[in-house]
Amino acid sequence: LRDGLGFAGLTLEARVSGGLLFRCLNCLLGFRHPTLGEAEYIALYDNKQTSQWTSNSIRTDWTLILERIHSTRKRGLRVLDIGCNTGELLALVPDYFKKYGVEVNKAAAEVAAARGITVYHHIEAIPAAAQFDTIILSDVIEHVTDPASFLTYLSGLLSTEGEILITTGDFENHLWRKFGASWWYCSF
């Protein structure tokens, strides 16, 4: 991975060092090495930008997530979106669901809150007794330094029949295979 002077639509004062891109042969998840420290990631993501992750169309993975949520046909279920940004995905979830998000970018969290989403600025702020029927990780798991521990923690937040829905970059994507670490997705 190349060193970067930009992140999430902003030019950085100091370069973010590149590194190597690996693929776990057990779970097939892609990850970079070395990783930055948690404080460094928070500083990069909490950058007052609110439009860097928005889209003019509904993403294919979001369509699948929404279909899964709708398939429950139960009202009042609690949905938590980790890394919810401005709440764009949760805004597509019907209002008879209770919507929660985790977002470190304070400006994006304010937009999500204005959409009626209960937003926590970090995962540790979620009350210990909270239980969710669906937890969404859309383009998040690849940014977590210890995915197994993170998923174990999240499983403790699930209701009895709850589920975690995960989407992430696809190493089998023809663009990823063609461009490798030079593909734009790898710059994050």
What does this 3D model show about the protein?
With 188 residues, this protein is of the alpha/beta class. Helix content is 23%, strand content 26%. It is built from 5 helices and 9 strands. The strands form 3 sheets. Strands 7-6-5-8-9 form a 5-stranded parallel sheet, with helices on one face. A two-stranded antiparallel sheet has the order 1-2. Helix 4 links the parallel strand 8 and strand 9. The longest helix has 11 residues. The radius of gyration is 17 Å and the shape is globular.
Please specify the SSE layout and strand pairing.
Elements: E1 4-7, E2 10-16, E3 20-23, E4 30-33, H1 38-45, H2 60-70, E5 78-82, E6 98-102, H3 106-114, E7 118-120, E8 132-138, H4 147-155, E9 158-167, H5 174-179
Parallel strand pairs: 5-6, 5-8, 6-7, 8-9
Antiparallel strand pairs: 1-2, 3-4
Shape: globular
Helix and strand element order? EEEEHHEEHEEHEH
Structural class by helix and strand composition: alpha/beta
Q: Report, as a whole number of angstroms, the end-to-end distance.
A: 10 Å
Low-pLDDT residue spans: none
Strand fraction equals 25-35%
- Give the overall pLDDT as a whole number: 86
Going across the major beta sheet, what is the strand order? 7-6-5-8-9
Can you give the helix content as a percent range? Answer: 10-25%
Strands, total number: 9
Q: With helices defined by DSSP (H or I, 4 residues minimum), what is the helix count?
A: 5
Major sheet: 5 strands, parallel
What Rg do the Cα atoms give? 17 Å
